[in-house]
């Protein structure tokens, strides 16, 4: 029976040699052609800036920044950064006028992410002005530190505190400076832990920390437990000993929710094979990053084993029909292989990522994948694919966009 969600993977697995024809000489022109297409189609009016980094034009600005940081694109660096600045300036003017201060604090869907990318682009261009968007980003910690600042759920990645912490982490990684003070980080992390404790107690959940978003107890990276815990691990030195214990207990609780190398979208669900979600947003391809972080911190083999099992599932079922993007598309699946390469040094994973890249250009994919609305966006469309293709040229530095594990 044909799988409604993924194409069959007919590729032979790694036999000791990487693919030829996927080097700089082919990838650079391909990426430049994609960028030309994206820039011809990205809407740039002040009314088109909705969607933040996720599926708004600001995501294309981040993509241009990412490409400009890669040594193989030095020739195009200045041109790409200048266009990135034009795009991000329009987006920044839009969020400056945002009346809802909570939306300003959102990382992937609102202002915090746009200020973060503006700071990175400005700094890359050598502009002292990078301090202005950085200051705007910093000021948002006050918005998201009250425990219930959002009715829909204050802690997840797209609009909540985990996203704000993620933004600070990305900025620290890219700019080389600590963005928030120790007190600010402790206040936000403390609110995340307290919120999770209160929810778990109130709802009598088996995990020491639990969260919901619009009433659903998600487990995956997009809105769920895994990315919240991932961010707490990134800042675990800022937590009290008791809170740190609760985080690690919750990590192990989530590890035990695995069903056949995958995780259900929400707590307590049973995965039905025909409806199985294997996406970065819901399922193993996103949850793997939490266990990668856990493994990098304490080197316990069970965390790496969990990542490896996730990778095996993605090799089998990760050629997704939902397009080329990183949220629930083929590039998002392939990033798991680049993650595993960085964790293990095993070239098999570069080979697998190369095969997934190759698949993006097949007739089968072009004809059989679903049409998507945000064709040029960072998370659903081609801007994310560009980031993946660039990272395939530099696997030792590769990382899922705006989702830092190696900091």
From TrEMBL:
GO molecular function: metal ion binding
Pfam families the UniProt entry points to: LANC_like
Transmembrane segments annotated in the record for this chain: 105-125
Binding site for Zn(2+): 281, 327-328
GO biological process, one term: peptide modification
Keyword vocabulary terms for this entry: Membrane, Metal-binding, Transmembrane, Transmembrane helix, Zinc
Keyword hit for Cytoplasm: no
Gene3D superfamilies: 1.50.10.10
A Gene Ontology cellular-component term: plasma membrane
Family membership noted in the UniProt record: Belongs to the LanC-like protein family.
Protein name: LanC-like protein 3
Organism: Esox lucius
